[in-house]
Design a protein that fits this description.
This protein has one domain: Roll (Pnp Oxidase, Chain A). Helices cover 21% and strands 37% of the residues. The chain has five helices and ten strands, in the order βαββββαβααβββαβ. Strands 1, 2, 3, 4, 5, 6, 9 and 10 form an eight-stranded antiparallel sheet that branches. A two-stranded antiparallel sheet has the order 7-8. The chain binds flavin mononucleotide (FMN).
Amino acid sequence: MVWKKCPWEMVVDKAFRAIQNVGGLLLVTEGQAQKPNVMSIGWFTLGIVWRKPVAVVLVRPSRYSFQLLEENPVFTVNVPQETMHREIELCGSYSGRNTDKFALCGFTPRYGEDPTVPMIDECQVSLLCSVVQKTKVEPSTFIAPIVTEFYPRDDFHFVYFGEIKEAWQKEND
Ligand SMILES: Cc1cc2nc3c(=O)[nH]c(=O)nc-3n(C[C@H](O)[C@H](O)[C@H](O)COP(=O)(O)O)c2cc1C
């Protein structure tokens, strides 16, 4: 299998199938320390906004990935292979503050056009995105049950809209 660039619309099904079947996707960020970090994400969407193709991720300020996104507003979203349940579990329970999750999972960074944030070579699909808008969700604009259920510690998400600059998938030679 080799990596090939493709239109982003071609990978939508694979991304949502992985969320269903593997439990999530892998968000990669890299900040001033120039060391990539990876965290699991389950909240994700894709579409067109401001006439741009965008990937939307929700990251709580308590995550190390949040700090890295603030340092360098570029991210990649990587679709795990169907067998990567353990990697989703590890990247969703350890923090990059004290663990090198690329090493822990045996992931190889693969850089595309942007030299600052890599994709994950072992995945099946990757999107490279550049943040065009970020919004902190506003507690007063939710219906009450969502605040009670999802924000008991006031760790309100930031929503990052990343313009999709490159879409890649692994294909047969
Ligand atoms: C399946 C799964 C999905 C997750 N989805 C999200 C998410 O969408 N947003 C978020 O902020 N945290 C999410 N998390 C929690 C982070 O992945 C977790 O806190 C991680 O350890 C943060 O890593 P970091 O500190 O290296 O950024 C999820 C965890 C799992 C296991």
